[in-house]
Amino acid sequence: MNPARVLVIEDEPKLAELLCVYLEAAGFEARRLGDGLEAAREVRDWSPALVLLDLMLPGKDGLDVCREIRAFSAVPIIMVTARVEEIDRLLGLELGADDYICKPYSPREVVARVKAVLRRSRPDATAGQEAARAAGLVIDEDAYRAQLDGTALELTPVEFRLLALLASAPGRIFSRDQVLDRLYDDHRVVTDRTVDSHVKNLRRKLGAIRPGDLIRSVYGVGYRLDLQAADDAEPH
Ligand code: CA
Question: Is 58 in contact with 11 (CB distance < 8 Å)?
């Protein structure tokens, strides 16, 4: 699996760089922004697993950035503030941040908090896979194996990653960009049509075991796994 991505939004360059060094040493992929102006776009395009967000930023402050991200994304956010007294005020604003860290901090502490927040937010994916399992789709990411209704699926690595992604949240719509992001390290070389053809092949392999459209295309938006609808279609 690809390393989890952490977006660091911090206007003190030395601090930002230090954090990225520690995050990368801990196995994360880190990217930094020096202000909040491009934050929402970066969250959308790069799909980080977590955002470290400094409160005091030039251009657009952390509060606005947090609200802006929350308007479209549930990505875990850790807010960083320079004053411990401020944390109470921030909690009162109900921004939807997942944790708060006060400066000065040790980068080691930040990495520990990042790991803790990611651990807490992971049950969602597990819950998704549990739901898929209950509906007959079993994904074993460690063994790189998948089964539908007790029959092993013969999948290419790309098809496997695609299915694992969709099964992490059955019913949720994943945009083409999100799909591209999870499937390829460098998705600039891949076109939408490539994704469509992988989807088509995966759909055919699933359909050979359980007739019906398990992967729905949502026109102009993306794809979702629809295990329920396939169940409904079974009696016919
Ligand atoms: Ca700052």
Answer: yes
